[in-house]
Write a structure and sequence with these properties.
The protein has helices spanning 21-31, 62-69, 77-91, 124-127, 146-159, 184-191, 204-211, 217-220, 222-229, 244-254, and strands at 16-17, 41-44, 52-53, 56-61, 96-99, 102-109, 112-121, 162-165, 170-173, 179-181. The protein is an alpha+beta fold. The protein has two domains: 16-131, Beta Polymerase, domain 2; 142-254, no CATH class. α2 (62-69) crosses α3 and α5 (146-159) crosses α9. The protein is globular, with a radius of gyration of 20 Å.
Length: 255
């Protein structure tokens, strides 16, 4: 459940430079039905915060789409609503492709076509903050990767017999299926400690700073360290008590 940069859904699309992102977003909004603009969520992912992006992500509220196209009685209301939205774009001669949770469209701009992924998300206002890293200035850190945050969150959740749905904004009990947290603040308090806040989930580095003081820190990182060994994740470890870095520091003090 990780947000990846792309651009393959619209084959003729070109990478979008940072300076062009705002104009493409404005054009995409004009192409959308007006009722979907009420709860639209922008600044998803790195587009507009990095020098160049393969695509631009927007989130629209799934219930707004279902209501607009009156698909609530369908077997899969969300899937039917996405098809209806794709048809809406096609009638406007906009290149369109349903791509998983997205309805991808080609938006004309000065460099040809830009791929905009209109992500159809339930409770978009709760989900979006987990993916708005740019608004918190995180792309200024050359080590930052949004995908690493979700891998680390999932690792900690596994230790606690929980699982995390990044596009549902749900921290779920593995045994009962109950949702135990949704917002960033709630998730931080469950995974890290009762005094933690959403800002503590800003990056791998910020999470590691909290775990450094956690007696369960080593156990919470078990899965993450396995991911590190596979080359899937970088933890940017400091002197977490019991960690390899900590052991080396202790040994160096004895020399």
């Amino acid at each position: 459940m990780i947000l990846l940069e792309g651009g393959n859904a619209i084959p003729e699309s070109n990478p979008v430079k940072q300076a062009d992102v705002a104009g493409v977003v404005a054009s995409a909004k004009k192409a959308l039905p007006k009722s979907l603009l009420v709860n639209i969520q922008t600044d998803i992912g790195s587009a507009g915060y990095k020098a160049e992006s393969g695509d631009i992500d927007l989130m629209v509220e799934a219930q707004d789409l279902i209501q607009l196209f009156k698909t609530s009685g369908e077997k899969d209301p969300t899937a039917s609503a996405k098809k209806a939205l794709a048809n809406y774009f096609q009638k406007k001669n906009i290149q369109t492709k349903i791509n998983g949770r997205n309805v991808s469209i080609g938006v004309p701009y000065e460099n040809g076509l830009a791929q905009v992924d209109v992500m159809v998300i339930h409770d978009a206002h709760i989900v979006a903050p987990f993916h708005q890293h740019g608004t918190r200035g995180m792309y200024g850190d050359p080590d930052f990767k949004g995908s690493d945050i979700f891998l680390l969150i999932s690792s900690i959740a596994k230790h606690l017999n929980l699982k995390f749905d990044a596009f549902g904004a749900k921290l779920i009990d593995r045994k009962t299926g109950d949702v135990v947290a949704r917002t960033r603040d709630e998730v931080a308090k469950v995974l890290l400690n009762p005094k933690a806040i959403g800002e503590d989930l800003n990056s791998v580095k910020s999470i590691m700073r909290i775990l450094k003081l956690d007696p369960e820190g080593i156990a919470k990182l078990k899965q993450a360290r396995e991911d590190v060994a596979k080359g899937l994740l970088t933890l940017h470890e400091t002197s977490l008590v019991g960690s390899p870095v900590w052991m080396r520091e202790m040994l160096s003090r004895l020399v």
